[in-house]
Amino acid sequence: MAYCAHETLIEEGSTGQKQLVNISQALTNKKDAQIFLFDEADTALDADNQKEFRQKVKELAKSKIVIYIKH
């Protein structure tokens, strides 16, 4: 299982930069995971990066279980 959330961000950079790195690490390092849980993982991303993230999630959901939490 791969977990990606606002509270699991890396330490350096803006919140958006941290989220991009966190998402990228989860998708790369946990590529063999069968379940991906994204909890507010894209809240600080700009519109273009949110769109790209949602597209990645959509592709991922074709072969994995994806839980995408948005408050």
How many distinct domains? 1
How many helices? The count is 2
Which series of helices and strands comes N to C?
EHEHE
How much is the average pLDDT? 85
- Measured on Cα atoms, how large is the radius of gyration? 11 Å
Structural class: alpha/beta
Inertia-based shape: globular
Strand content: 15-25%
Largest sheet: 3 strands, parallel
Give a structural overview:
- By secondary structure, the chain is α/β, with parallel strands linked by helices.
- It has helices at residues 15-29, 47-60; strands at 2-5, 35-39, 65-69.
- Strands 1-2-3 form a 3-stranded parallel beta sheet, with helices on one face.
- Helix 1 (15-29) links the parallel strand 1 (2-5) and strand 2 (35-39).
- The model has no long low-confidence stretch (mean pLDDT 85).
